[in-house]
Backbone:
């Protein structure tokens, strides 16, 4: 007697051929399929950080690939590893992605050695985004510390691309010392934009520095904040969140209108590997962008 | 649901029939522990005699047939600067015989994450859809607390579920394939006598649960007792070996590694099961570890099982099989930890 069980080919299931939906919680099934992409150029920002321009090779995928400010991608070097990197470019730029990467580990070290023309893999975009549409009609306060300027570039570009939708845009950017200021050329460019105020501050000035000196919170003395119609976006080291967000909430800014971006170890980006577990949730699914109220309710988030 | 019975002779024929064409996995006797008790494990069966229908508890859970310890996700062909990706999901049909209700409930919980949530895991889905599950009732062991976790009975997510009623197995059938298998193997209609026997066995099983864990307020306690000394008391014992997660039927954390061959012509992206108790679980580049101490990592294991998962899916991740308690080299038992949390009093 033979009891042969038929094979169930999951490639025939409808979700396997479903059109990829590129934004937020897509039900994409080919979860490990990365889009082959080429490094177009690499810009040396400091001795530790490089900005990579990366273009997805397949024109039809490139055309469909959209993201919102604050989302991240998984960047893969086949045979070396995969890392989560937040997108630094304007979401209006449909030609290539800009990823700002600090040389800090094995994969990033290898990435820094790659030359333009090399092929890497991109999966994503993953995660939550800054609610730029909700902020319409309000002032936006963007606060970055150190490498936090990388994920913050995308919302800054967004506000420039949609300038008439918002009231006052203020960017506060703090760095350890003048040599650590990323995108200094761009900061100069942004300064010239009508209706965008940008203030920089360093902790340890050198002899050429003639700007503000101190902690990022010192800049608040120069910035009037209307708590009734302001949204704040904060990126930087966790210790900065505490100081900045408690200052803002003392001013009366509701915690649901402050957004921070958290960083954790990630191996999948899809809520499966549990490595980015924070409190009762995962940074890759419910984050990396959280409002500050949620962060306060997540154990050991900051 | 359909109910039938099958004689033990016909059951043997059924298993042998399944073996002819499919991979059949069941509990096998592998070793003895220090006390001389038999150690069982779910493994591929070569003949009917290897199948231990009276097994107590498998040391590791059958989850590993759905989430293997190691699994190749992607293979790459590398060519100087360029590369090509190759992904395969094919799994041959197979049968797992003898899964306990707790293990079937565990799969159900894994399905929530791997099948029903955003980004379903196709590797898991392929294994899940190609596996026929034959469940088996058993008398609870002294330390089973699956009843407290409401995982002691299975109503779905199996093809066949069997209860030993003496000369025959009483069978609940939950799929067409299951029906085909039982029907072709000489399955019979349920008689009044079978039904009486079934009721008696079920009642008997129910009366034999010895261990109870009250988990009603545990999700809240996870928050309220977050800074409790209980975590250090148990966490300081923890050796951070990760055994608990390896044997757990529901732990699904993993890590990914990539490896190129020496000539750099091909590479593999591989997933391996991990444990949140291992030292570098939350370590990030730049020498920062979000969970540097054993007691913090142990706390998060419980926090995920009894709080995080409850928030996301309205059920706890734990099924109460106590495999982690048995496997733990430091003697950390979930029942003791939870009871400590419940009974702890602040001075």
Residues:
């Amino acid at each position: 007697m033979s009891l042969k069980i038929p094979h169930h080919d999951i490639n025939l299931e409808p979700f396997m051929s479903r059109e990829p939906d590129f934004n937020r919680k897509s039900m994409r099934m080919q979860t490990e399929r990365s889009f082959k992409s080429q490094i177009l150029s690499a810009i040396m920002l400091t001795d530790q950080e490089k900005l990579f321009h990366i273009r997805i090779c397949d024109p039809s995928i490139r055309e469909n690939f959209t993201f919102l400010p604050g989302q991240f991608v998984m960047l893969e070097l086949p045979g070396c590893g995969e890392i989560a990197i937040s997108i630094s470019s304007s979401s209006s730029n449909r030609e290539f992605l800009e990823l700002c990467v600090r040389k800090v580990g094995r994969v990033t070290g290898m990435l820094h050695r790659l030359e333009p023309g090399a092929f890497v893999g991109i999966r994503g975009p993953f995660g939550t985004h800054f609610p730029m549409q909700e902020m319409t009609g309000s002032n936006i306060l963007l606060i970055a510390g150190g490498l936090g300027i990388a994920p913050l570039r995308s919302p800054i570009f967004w506000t420039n691309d949609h300038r008439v939708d918002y009231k006052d845009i203020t960017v506060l950017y703090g760095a350890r010392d003048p040599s650590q200021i990323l995108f200094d050329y761009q900061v100069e460019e942004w300064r010239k934009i009508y209706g965008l105020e940008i203030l920089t501050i360093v902790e340890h000035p050198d002899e050429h520095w003639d700007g503000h000196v101190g902690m990022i919170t010192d800049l608040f003395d120069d910035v009037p904040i209307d708590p009734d119609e302001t949204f704040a976006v904060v990126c930087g080291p966790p210790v900065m969140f505490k100081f900045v967000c408690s200052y803002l909430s003392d001013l009366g800014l509701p915690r649901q209108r402050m957004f921070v971006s958290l960083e954790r170890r990630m191996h999948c980006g899809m809520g499966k590997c549990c490595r980015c577990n924070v409190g009762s949730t995962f940074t890759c699914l419910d984050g990396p962008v959280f409002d500050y109220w949620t962060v306060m309710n997540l154990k050991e988030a900051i | 649901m359909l109910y039938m019975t099958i004689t033990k002779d016909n059951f043997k024929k059924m298993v042998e029939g399944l073996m002819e064409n499919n991979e059949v996995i069941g509990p096998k006797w592998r070793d003895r522990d220090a006390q001389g008790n038999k150690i069982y494990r779910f493994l591929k069966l070569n003949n009917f005699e290897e199948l231990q229908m009276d097994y107590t508890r498998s040391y590791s859970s059958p989850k590993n047939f759905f989430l293997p310890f190691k699994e190749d996700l992607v293979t790459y062909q590398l060519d100087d600067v360029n590369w090509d990706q190759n992904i395969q999901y094919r799994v041959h049909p197979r049968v797992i015989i003898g899964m306990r209700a707790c293990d079937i409930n565990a799969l159900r919980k894994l399905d929530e994450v791997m099948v029903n949530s955003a980004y379903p895991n196709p590797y898991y889905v392929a294994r899940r859809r190609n596996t026929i599950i034959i469940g088996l009732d058993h008398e609870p062991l002294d330390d089973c607390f699956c009843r407290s976790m409401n995982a002691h009975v299975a109503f779905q997510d199996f093809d066949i579920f069997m209860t030993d009623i003496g000369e025959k197995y009483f069978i609940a059938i939950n799929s067409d394939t299951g029906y085909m298998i039982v029907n072709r193997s000489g399955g019979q209609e349920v008689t009044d006598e079978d039904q009486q026997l079934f009721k008696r066995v079920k009642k008997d099983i129910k009366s034999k649960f010895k261990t109870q864990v009250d988990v009603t307020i545990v999700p809240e306690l996870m928050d309220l007792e977050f800074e409790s000394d209980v975590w250090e008391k148990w966490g300081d014992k923890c050796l951070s070996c990760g055994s608990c997660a390896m044997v757990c039927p529901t732990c699904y954390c993993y890590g990914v590694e990539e490896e190129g061959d020496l000539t750099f012509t091909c590479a593999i992206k591989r997933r391996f099961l991990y444990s949140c108790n291992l030292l570098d679980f939350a370590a990030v580049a730049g020498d920062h570890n979000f969970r540097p101490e054993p007691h913090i990592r142990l706390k998060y294991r419980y926090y995920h099982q009894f709080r995080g998962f409850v928030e996301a899916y309205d059920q706890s991740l734990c099924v109460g099989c106590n495999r982690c308690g048995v496997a733990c080299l430091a003697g950390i038992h979930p029942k003791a930890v939870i009871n400590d949390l419940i009974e702890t009093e602040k001075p």
User: Anything to note?
Assistant: Residues 24-28 of chain A have pLDDT under 50 and may be disordered. The first helix of chain A runs from residue 14 to 17.
